[in-house]
Every structure is written in structure tokens, then in C-alpha cells.
Write a structure and sequence with these properties.
Blueprint lengths: L12 E4 L1 E4 L3 E7 L8 E2 L9 H8 L1 H4 L1 H7 L5 E8 L5 E4 L2 H8 L6 E8 L5 E5 L5 H10 L6 E4 L6 E4 L4 E4 L3 E8 L4 E5 L10 H4 L8 H4 L14 E7 L2 E7 L4 E4 L7 E7 L1 E5 L6 E5 L3 E4 L5 E6 L5 E6 L21 E2 L1
Antiparallel strand pairs: 1-4, 1-20, 2-3, 3-5, 5-12, 6-11, 6-13, 7-10, 7-12, 8-9, 8-11, 14-15, 15-22, 16-21, 16-23, 17-20, 17-22, 18-19, 18-21
């Protein structure tokens, strides 16, 4: 990009998916700024440029002031689709503090939204009961870990919040949308008796939450989308907010000043974003994701067909109290929906 391009107004962007095959299935990266995975724009005059290049040139115009202040040049969230044919290795994500101190990286909190699930599909998520670290280590080494793990039989539409420290794995027959922090700092702990690269049980040993899954609060209450025409917050954590939308009528989204970016994943149906300029129509359909930069702070969402359902991903402003600003004063960065 050159300086002339820096003057161009940003617009809603779709990216070219990048799929990695694994021994247990595949991972398709839809929005990623990870260095080893850097999503490429698929539409408009930025087509062929990567997300990291956009961040390096347009800075807070992509993500918003608040997000840029915290994450800097790295795009804040990662969106990918996991498809399993066999069991994933048992894994654990790293918390922000340990990630920063040990690995100079962001940690990882993740939301799993189940897109499809076989009748016998399972997810391991935490422990049935509190376990002693030494016992867990022994069980991993001897292949006896299965019996102490909490197992869940998911259905399409189920959502799970995977907190750092929670051991987890997805079994065969699942298609899962993962929304997380901009990090892949995840350690493999156990390979279910198969030859698995990158087992790092010793490295992650003190990062694991050994309490029972209920005590750890690692499982998000299963929640469906809102009834027709409504919005329902599925997850609201410091790292991101995910909202389900049944898009029946047009939805106007605006803010007085650019706040957060918005990313939309289409679960079913088809939708389009209409910006104020006459040619500003950007369509996306089931299985596709679109990024609306913070600079685009006034637009409409419309369904193209019936039964359109979306997930919206934002990063919320972290409010810092100011004695000069009344508590009830409106924040111009906050988006409104009507």
C-alpha cells in the first residue's frame, strides 16, 4: 500500500478462507491476523491485501480507538471453523497474564458455536470432579484420562465458553465456529493413544484448572438465538461480545464516532450490508464472514432471504471513570441498533 491508498475510505470486507488439514479433521481460518495465518481481502479495491497490511496502514480506522489502544497493530479477534473427523488432542488455552509473561503473546479465551453435530458427537470440557495434578499427569501418560473428563453431547446452536485453563477436545462429527482472542496459544496435552505432534503436557502443567468443570465455570449455559426480529447476547467477556441475530427486517447500526469494528458470520440464509454510498452493497451468505471496519459507523443490515441468522462479534469499550463526565452521559463510541 502507498500513502495515496491511506486516504481511501474503508468498507465491509470479506476474506479468502485458508484451510489446514489435520490428522483429526480441518481448520478453516476466516478472519486471522496471526503472522503464520494472515487473511487476504477478497472484495473491493483492497482485494489481495492482507489483514495485517490493513492494520499496519489504517490502524484504529479498522478496529476503533479503544481496541487499538489495547491490541495495537494486531487485529483483536480470530474467527475459524473447526471440522472433526476424529478426536482432537486434549488441549488447554493459556490465560493473558501467563501468555504475556512467558510467551510475549496474547492469551486465548474462546467461544464455540456448534454449527453441526452428529448424533454421537461429544465435546470434552473440563473435569467431572476435582483432580490432583499428579493423577492427571499419570493418566495422560498411561492413557487413562478419558474417565475423569466431563463429556457433553452438543446440538446445533449450542454455545460453550472455553476459558483459559479448561481442558477441552472436540470429538468426531462436529462443525464448530470458534471466535476467540487473536491467539493460537494452545497446548496439546494428550493424543488419545495416537502419534500426535506437539504434546506439551509438562510445559502446560501449571496452566491447567484442576477443579470440577462446574466449579471452574468453564461451560457456558447453552443458549439459542433470540426469537424472530430480536437480538440476544450469547457471550459478553472482556475479550469480545457475541450476539445472535434473527434478521427478519432491516437493522440500522450507527454511532456518532467510530467505536468497535463489527464482524458478522452468517449461520443460515443470506444478508447484505448497505452503506450510505450508492454502490455500497455487500452480500454474504451462510458460511461466510464479513468485517465492517470501525470507520464504517453508519450502515444497514438486510436479509436477502427468509431464515437469515447471524452472529455479530464486537469488542466492547472498557470504561474508565472520569470525574468530569457525568455517569449518565452518553458514550459517542457505543453503537446503537434500531
Amino acid at each position: 500500500m502507498d500513502m495515496e491508498e491511506d486516504k481511501r475510505k474503508l468498507y465491509p470486507m470479506k476474506f479468502i478462507g485458508s484451510k489446514d488439514e489435520t490428522g483429526w479433521g480441518s481448520v478453516e481460518y476466516l478472519i486471522a491476523d496471526l503472522g503464520f495465518k494472515d487473511s487476504m481481502v477478497d472484495n473491493g479495491w483492497f482485494g489481495g491485501n492482507t489483514l495485517s497490511e490493513l492494520m499496519g496502514t489504517y490502524l484504529e480506522r479498522v478496529t476503533g480507538d479503544d481496541s487499538f489502544e489495547y491490541y495495537g497493530l494486531q487485529f483483536p479477534v480470530l474467527v475459524k471453523v473447526i471440522r472433526t473427523e476424529g478426536w482432537q488432542p486434549l488441549q488447554v488455552n493459556v490465560a493473558d497474564q501467563e501468555a504475556a509473561e512467558r510467551y510475549d503473546s496474547f492469551g486465548k479465551t474462546a467461544l464455540w458455536y456448534v454449527l453441526d453435530a452428529g448424533k454421537e458427537s461429544e465435546i470434552c470440557l473440563g473435569f467431572k470432579e476435582a483432580v490432583e495434578p499428579a493423577d492427571f499427569y499419570r493418566r495422560c501418560q498411561e492413557g487413562e484420562v478419558d474417565g475423569i473428563l466431563e463429556r457433553v453431547h452438543p446440538s446445533p446452536g449450542d454455545t460453550f465458553l472455553i476459558k483459559p485453563g479448561t481442558v477441552f477436545a472436540a470429538g468426531p462429527g462436529l462443525t464448530v465456529l470458534e471466535i476467540s482472542e487473536c491467539s493460537e496459544l494452545t497446548f496439546n496435552l494428550h493424543g488419545w493413544g495416537k502419534e500426535t505432534e506437539g504434546i506439551m503436557l509438562e510445559e502446560a502443567f501449571d496452566l491447567i484448572d484442576y477443579t470440577a468443570s462446574g466449579e471452574a465455570g468453564s461451560r457456558l449455559e447453552v443458549s439459542g438465538l433470540a426469537e424472530a426480529g430480536g437480538r440476544r447476547i450469547i457471550a459478553n467477556v472482556p475479550e469480545f461480545t457475541v450476539t445472535g441475530i434473527d434478521l427478519v427486517d432491516g437493522l440500522h447500526i450507527s454511532s456518532e464516532q467510530p467505536g468497535s469494528f463489527a464482524a458478522y458470520y452468517c449461520i443460515s440464509g443470506e444478508a447484505f450490508i448497505q452503506t450510505p454510498d450508492p454502490s455500497g452493497k455487500y452480500s454474504f451468505k451462510a458460511g461466510q464472514c464479513i468485517l465492517v471496519p470501525s470507520e464504517v459507523n453508519d450502515f444497514f443490515l438486510f436479509p436477502s432471504v427468509g431464515g437469515t441468522r447471524l452472529l455479530e462479534v464486537l469488542t466492547e469499550k472498557r470504561v474508565i471513570s472520569d470525574s468530569y463526565v457525568p455517569d449518565n452521559a452518553p458514550d459517542p463510541h457505543i453503537k446503537t441498533w434500531n
